[in-house]
Amino acid sequence: MSEHQNSEVITKGKIDKAINLLKEQKPKEREDVSDRDAVRQMRRYIEKVTSDKYGYTYDEVSEMLKGLGINLIGGRIKYLIGELKKSSRRQKKTSSSDDKNRSSNPATETEPLVENTASVQASSEPDKSTVNSAKGKRQSKQPLSQQQQAESNL
């Protein structure tokens, strides 16, 4: 069923040479790119000319690019720029929160015990409720003096 040419014998040395040859290959330069990649590459320049300082619209940018054979409507350019901004915000948010967690709050073996004790105290007193702050940490609705007293007991 399978066609096998009776050519030379393939030796381990030839395989090693072939592997090295394949490893050394660089990616081919592509002639065509997607609209997303094109806008990604032009992003800073598009944002510059559509800024308040320059005042061009996305439709005007579209007309400029049409002269070069790049056929993207203004709405598509605006959408892709927005998507690129979102993805870069997510990346920055993820990396900055990772950095903050690593550098500003080094974990020690005693910290979980302190947190657990505080949460046990809060849960054992039913009249004190908890709220989520803007940063997502739980804070109890206790008068300040009671909070300080509870912290000093820890």
State the strand order across the main sheet.
1-2
Largest sheet: 2 strands, antiparallel
Rough outline = elongated
Give the overall average pLDDT. 74
Distance between the termini: 77 Å
Order of helices and strands: HHHHHEEH
Q: What amount of the residues lies in strands?
A: under 5%
- Residue ranges: pLDDT <50 for 5 or more in a row? 106-136
Q: What is the helix tally?
A: 6
Q: Provide the structure class.
A: mainly alpha
- CA-atom Rg in angstroms: 30 Å
* Helix residue percentage: 55-70%
| Total count of strands | 2
How would you portray this structure in words?
The structure is a single chain. The protein is 58% helix and 4% strand. It is built from six helices and two strands, in the order αααααββα. Strands 1-2 form a two-stranded antiparallel sheet. A hairpin with a 5-residue loop joins strand 1 and strand 2 (138-140). The longest helix has 30 residues, at 74-103.
Key descriptive features of the protein:
two-stranded antiparallel sheet; 4% strand; elongated; single chain; 6 helices; 154 residues; mainly alpha
How would you summarize what this structure contains?
The chain has six helices and two strands, in the order αααααββα.
List the helices and strands and how they pair.
Elements: H1 12-23, H2 35-49, H3 58-66, H4 74-103, H5 111-124, E1 130-132, E2 138-140, H6 144-153
Antiparallel strand pairs: 1-2
